[in-house]
Recover the amino acids of this structure.
């Protein structure tokens, strides 16, 4: 039998390793919850208060998870279910995962939509690039974030507006990297970006009158933008 990317993506070994990794993460989360609850009780907090905090946290976490679920469904079409399940369950993000996978596939000379039917080495290369790329985030946080954040706080506490300028420049740099790629790659991408911007503005205005909408903005924009991308791709 000829091996393909789908063979690797759907292998029992990969599913087993991912399940093991997720089990370790869940166990650590439960351990931290147990220690935190014990400490709260020691400090005199009532069980009712702790229960209310847990309920509020769960409800606040469910809505953002809708966007993650949609991201998983998007990635699973091109990379199978196992790998996106792992990536989006740990420290991955939809925008990064798609970009890293797409750039790797294009660099090798294969369309992202054809990775599962191509050689397994291509899928393996995508896994390696996505993993090494996302590791830069925790490393930067470990070695740079403290110095960066303290520098920003010092700039904000001093005279002038340098702190705000630094933060603004950081976000502008991110936009300068991502926006041209979306705008100039092809017309459907540009129209989808424009649609998401319009939807975000509309929901941002509406959330001032209906505050509960602010919790659903990301999920709503993601769903409607994905639907619009299908429309734009069909028209253009």
């Amino acid at each position: 039998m000829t091996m393909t990317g789908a063979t690797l993506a759907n292998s029992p070994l990969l599913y087993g390793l991912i399940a093991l990794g997720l089990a370790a993460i869940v166990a650590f989360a439960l351990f931290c919850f147990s220690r935190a609850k014990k400490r709260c009780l020691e400090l005199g907090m009532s069980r009712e208060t702790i229960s209310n905090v847990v309920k509020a946290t769960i409800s606040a976490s469910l809505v953002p998870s809708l966007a993650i679920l949609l991201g998983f469904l998007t990635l699973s079409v091109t990379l199978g279910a196992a790998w996106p399940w792992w990536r989006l369950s740990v420290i991955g993000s939809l925008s990064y995962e798609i970009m890293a996978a797409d750039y790797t596939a294009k660099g090798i000379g294969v369309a992202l939509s054809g990775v599962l039917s191509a050689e397994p080495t291509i899928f393996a290369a995508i896994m390696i690039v996505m993993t090494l790329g996302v590791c830069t985030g925790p490393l930067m946080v470990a070695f740079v974030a403290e110095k960066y954040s303290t520098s920003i706080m010092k700039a904000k506490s001093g005279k002038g507006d340098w702190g705000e300028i630094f933060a603004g420049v950081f976000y502008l740099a991110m936009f300068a990297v991502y926006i041209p790629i979306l705008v100039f790659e092809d017309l459907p991408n540009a129209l989808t970006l424009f649609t998401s911007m319009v939807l975000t503005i509309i929901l941002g205005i509406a959330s001032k009158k209906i505050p509960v909408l602010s919790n659903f903005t990301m999920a709503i924009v993601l769903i409607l933008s994905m639907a619009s991308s299908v429309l734009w791709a069909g028209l253009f």
In short: The chain is about 80% helix and 0% strand. The mean pLDDT is 85. Residues 102 and 112 are 6 Å apart (CA to CA).
